[in-house]
Amino acid sequence: MTKNPTWISDWRPEDEAFWNATGKTIARRNLIWSIVAEHIGFSVWLIWSIVTTKLPQAGFHYTTDQLFQLVAVPGLIGALMRFPYTFAVTTFGGRNWTIFSAAILLIPTLSLAYFVGQPDTPFWLMLLIASTAGLGGGNFASSMTNISFFFPDRMKGWALGLNAAGGNIGVSSVQLLTPILMTVAVINLFQASPVDGVFLQNAGLMWVLPIAIAVFGAVFFMNNLTTAKSSIKNQLAVVRRKHTWIMAYLYIGTFGSFIGYSAAFPLLIKTQFPQVTIAIAFLGPLVGSLSRPLGGWLADRIGGSVITFWNFIVMAGATIGVLYFVGHKDFIGFLSMFLVLFVTTGIGNGSTYRMIPSIFREQNLFRVRGKGDAERAVALKTASIESGAAVGFIGAVGAVGGYLIPTGFGKSIALTGGPQLALAIYLGFYASCLALTWWFYLRRSPQGEGASSLAGARV
User: What's the count of helices (H) and strands (E) in the chain, helices before strands?
Assistant: First the structure.
């Protein structure tokens, strides 16, 4: 094998000799640069969570509901973009797609930098500009699909958890750094006058150099795998799998909650506790991101379904806590409960993503039970392709939470004056996720399609 070929044809991560000799080094290098690109993608995706809080003082006369729409629409577009991004890796190659998907992030960043300096911009046009930030949300699907092919099954929980956490923490980065760097005049290439000491344009301009670094890293340090090539038709087979849809529903509860709460948190703080600085909002996505590898690690050792089940119980309890403290206007209690909620979204993200390859492996092995080693090898190959496609597809469906949660808060505040109605609906949703997890993955009852083996295997 040459030192750094664009395409690698011989890739056998389950072969320990191959893995220890060459595979491990290559896989980790691709993981590092995948994390860099995905981190920036998440940062761009959530730019508007901070920008919207500054628009009123910059002269934009939008209603509170419209501001929540500006926060929500990138979540919707990001979710939709994840569908084509899922299949892009097996069509164009992981390295090639990372280069492209990182480079086009210049569209939302530069367009934001220009239009936030135009207070007469109509709402429909600003909504269109905000929607382009959804391009950053698509990166997650392609990145996770790509990395799933590089690592052996025994390490997928750790690798996918680390990759996802590195991306997720981009949400915290944008919410921490943007308010700071918007006060630095030197970044502002447009030389516009600050509003209340804030250069709103910098929210977009600050990501131009990191985007360039991500593209450079993908060009020179990432690889494509020929073993990851597959037709879109073969991958679309996962859409007909019952467990693809069940896991997508559960993923709305975990990742959808993470990205939805992350997007809405700064504006929610500003509307419910106007005396509190939004600079504290970054803590939520930070703890949610850092806890994601923990979820993957625990799932590798205990079982993804077990961790997911108990995690939804804690999520429900934390939601009840948020409901109580927001009603009593107690910010310390509100923040504490929300941080617990963010931690559980991260743990649940890791555990549900670990369940996906385990489920597809068990399902495919169940179908060829007793048919010999040749059939078993084919089943494992099929499981690898299907789980890679499912990872992206489930991530796409789950991401709709990035639209539903901010929209829900906006409508709840508009109708009732507070977010309690939305929180009550989210609580009911977590209860349904808890029931589904138990019914399909923990209940030991003989069923068709090897469902009983899923509980026995502690997927």
Answer: 22, 2
